[in-house]
Amino acid sequence: MQNEIKALEANDTWKIVDLPIGKTLIGCKWVYKIKQKEYGNIERYKVRLVAKGYTQREGIDYTDTYSPIARIATIRTIFAITAIKDWHLEQLDIDNTFLHGDLKEEVYMNLPPGITKRNINQVCRLTKSLYGLKQASKQWYEKLTSFLRNISFTQSSADNSLFLRKTESSFVALLIYVDDIILAGNCMNGIKEIKNQLHTTFKIKDLGQLKYFLGLEISKTHEGIHICQRKYALDILANT
Amino acid sequence: MQNLNTPVAKRNENLFDQTLSTYDASNYRRIIGQLLYLVNTRPNISFIVQLLSQFVQAPSKYHHQVVQRILRYIKSSLAQGIFYPKTSIIQLKAFSDSNWASCSITCYSTTSYCIYLEECLISWKTKKQSTISRSSSKAEYSALATTCCEIQWLIYLLKDLCITPCNIASLFCDSESARHIAHNNSFHERTKHIEIDCHGVREKLEQ
Q: What is the CATH architecture assignment of B92-206?
């Protein structure tokens, strides 16, 4: 939890200020979670500070909340083309995704439990978005898409979460599913270059070849790609 | 649980029996929700899951039995999914079908399609139509229209991905009359206004 507070402070998520008169506060709390790998064994323990977004009021604390995600048919089409053309298929994950989004609105939040107040009026003025805020996913999507446009990606009109970059030597398709990103392309160097570019702005976790995505298990060989939902099916059976 | 080779029995008339009393709706809804996501790699349960999902309002014990049967089938085929082989040619092939007045409560028809990119099954759907069809041709034609929209979308998507199919998309349909309707209006075949055209065509036919 202390690490998380440090990460949040390093990220300039908030400024500690006295609450101005006439402004309202939103709450926050810590959430603890156990992350699992594809076969269900424990990967790590996770802690996350979340804002109580349900106390936000529309028009004051947030305006728009919409953010698109990929259609499953787009995902399958990418897999099919990757198989047909024997492309590379890589996956990466952005650390603390929603914390990257910039916040336009003036939002005040209670100090998180674990930080001691020096005086009773002290609160956090949020400058970056936080998990639980209504606009968190939209702010993140905007941040990422504007970054991708800057590094000469074009957005697909068929699916707004698909981005493409064509150079003389390589073609790379990048698919966004909130914080999970798939890269498919004909040239490994092109993919690596994009990973590096992403890493300089956001901290990314390179997951290498795509194996597990949205509950889909993907196995790729030179003959083709097989996708199934074995673990998901087992989970359904276990709960009944 | 005994393992099974098929997800659903051939005859399921009791699904539409509204006299049966509601039983454990919340559990039913949870499992249907989970199965809907499982359809992402299992087109073969798409039809029965969409059919069962029409009864989440008031499921009977019978509906639970059908769900149990699907689960038993899944248990016997856990790692089953889709395989995308490496190929040299790329062409879109779509198969469209409809089940006329399949819902015995509302008499609505059901649309189904599946679209392949060469040997790779990439898109499929089973859905109850939103309007009533007085003839089976109308139901078939509606299904064709839905399929065309999806093909058009996939063509746009492939274009964005810099993939040029080797051949124009083929659309397969097992209804002679729907094909005739389509050929009469061949200029409109790949437009989104197909539904409206269909009404025009039907009016002429009824005259």
A: 2-Layer Sandwich (3.30)
pTM of the model: 0.84
CA distance B91 to B128: 28
Cβ distance A215 to B37 under 8 Å?
A: yes
Instruction: Specify burial of residue A233 (Cβ count, 10 A radius: 0-12, 13-18, 19+).
Output: buried
| Burial letters B164-174, b for 16+ CB under 10 A, else e | ebeeebebebe
A82 vs B84: CA distance, rounded Å: 9
Q: What is the pLDDT of residues A37-72, one digit of tens each?
A: 767 788 788 888 888 888 787 777 777 778 888 899
Are residues A216 and B41, on separate chains, in Cβ contact within 8 Å? yes
Q: Is the ipTM of this complex over 0.90?
A: no
Test B157 with A156 for CB contact under 8 angstroms.
Answer: yes
Is A17 in CB contact (< 8 Å) with chain B? no
Which of A86, A159, A229 comes nearest B41 by C-beta? A229
Q: Where are the domains of chain A?
A: 2-238
Neighbours of A50 (CB within 10 A): 17
